[in-house]
């Protein structure tokens, strides 16, 4: 009786099923060493890849892994090297990985607008791009990405200090499905840029404008009104021009807000916070308002009573808050807080925060 070859008997789908029964990726790789067909099947089915490689190796990876949709070339801050990923690498990536939907270039300090232009020309399916702390990038490169990647859903630009309102205008005109935008430290962004952004991008769920010191009430209000039904996360750390008008606009428009960071916004006071607590009582989960010096017991007590789904609260350095805010809680007011930060609140004592109101222990009580 002639011997039967497994490769001749099994179809690709049947072989995929056999490989799926293996528990670990290491075992699958060992099988790939035995047979070229198995290796090819595993390679073409692979969707994610993390690598640190130059142009030659990237070409080899692209020829082997033809269906990659997620590529991670990011560098850690502690172990990064220069130049690392370069524009020539991005040219290879853009030409070889045509199916890419997710590209992480976080902290790749060597890339410039030329590299982003390659991405914009070739990767039309791209939905997620992280170029945080790629400090050489400017509006020219971002405009090229917006021009070619119309289906972009998430864009992270933290630390890209040359980015201005012009990039936001380009996104508004061409990337109308955008849902997440990170602009932390982009100090050239202004209210005008945010107003232009939300003329076209009205599905934004997460907006990070931490340390964008030129953003004020007008910009935040325009975002709140345009993205009222979608906005869930808004980060405004150290945006010192933001005041009560912004919070009132959020309270009036954004009923689904889950995370709000307003640390360092010193002009915000009790009245607007109380209205926010009432408006977002069913959705608010994370609230950071450290260094909001005008916040007092009345607004904190309102938050604790109204926001039953609140999980994390930071009131550090809010000097006017005392034990009274916690004493006002009734016997039925049970908190679900998992994180409570009260650092440098000199008028709050350990005995003042009664543990009987906590659904879970506070993991960060300073």
TrEMBL record:
Family matches, as Pfam families: DUF7885 (PF25372), LRR_6 (PF13516)
InterPro entries from the UniProt entry: FBXL15_LRR, Leu-rich_rpt, Leu-rich_rpt_Cys-con_subtyp, LRR_dom_sf
Limits of the F-box/LRR-repeat protein 15-like leucin rich repeat domain: 171-284
Superkingdom of source: Eukaryota
Protein name, as recorded: F-box/LRR-repeat protein 2-like
Primary gene name: LOC104709310
């Amino acid at each position: 009786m002639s011997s039967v070859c497994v490769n001749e008997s099994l179809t690709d789908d049947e072989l995929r099923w056999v490989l799926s029964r293996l528990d670990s990726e290491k075992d699958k790789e060992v099988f790939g060493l035995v047979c070229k067909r198995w290796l090819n099947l595993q390679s073409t089915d692979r969707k994610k890849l993390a690598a640190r490689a130059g142009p030659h190796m990237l070409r080899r990876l692209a020829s082997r892994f033809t269906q990659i949709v997620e590529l991670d070339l990011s560098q850690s801050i502690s172990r990064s090297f220069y130049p690392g990923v370069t524009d020539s690498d991005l040219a290879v990536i853009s030409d070889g990985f045509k199916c890419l939907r997710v590209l992480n270039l976080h902290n790749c300090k060597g890339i410039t607008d030329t590299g982003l232009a390659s991405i914009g020309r070739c990767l039309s399916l791209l939905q997620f791009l992280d170029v945080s702390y790629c400090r050489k990038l400017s509006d020219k490169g971002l405009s090229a990405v917006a021009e070619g990647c119309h289906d972009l859903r998430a864009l992270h630009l933290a630390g890209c200090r040359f980015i201005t309102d012009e990039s936001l205008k380009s996104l508004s005109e061409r990337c109308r499905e955008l849902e997440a935008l990170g602009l932390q430290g982009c100090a050239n962004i202004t209210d005008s840029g945010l107003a232009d952004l939300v003329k076209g991008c009205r599905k934004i769920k997460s907006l990070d404008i931490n340390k964008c010191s030129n953003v004020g009430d007008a910009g935040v209000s325009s975002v709140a009104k345009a993205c009222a039904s979608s906005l869930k996360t808004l980060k405004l750390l150290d945006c010192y021009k933001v005041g009560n008008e912004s919070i009132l606009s959020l309270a009036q428009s954004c009923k689904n807000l889950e995370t709000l960071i307003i640390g360092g916004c010193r002009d915000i006071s009790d009245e607007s916070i109380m209205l926010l607590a009432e408006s977002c009582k069913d959705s608010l989960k994370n609230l950071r308002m450290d260094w909001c010096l005008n916040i007092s017991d009345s607004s904190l007590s309102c938050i604790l009573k109204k926001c039953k789904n609140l999980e994390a609260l930071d009131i550090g350095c809010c000097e006017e808050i005392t034990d009274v805010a916690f004493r006002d809680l009734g016997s039925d007011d049970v908190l679900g807080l998992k994180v409570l930060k009260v650092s440098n609140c000199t008028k709050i004592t350990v005995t003042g925060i009664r543990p009987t109101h906590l659904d879970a222990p506070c993991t960060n009580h300073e």
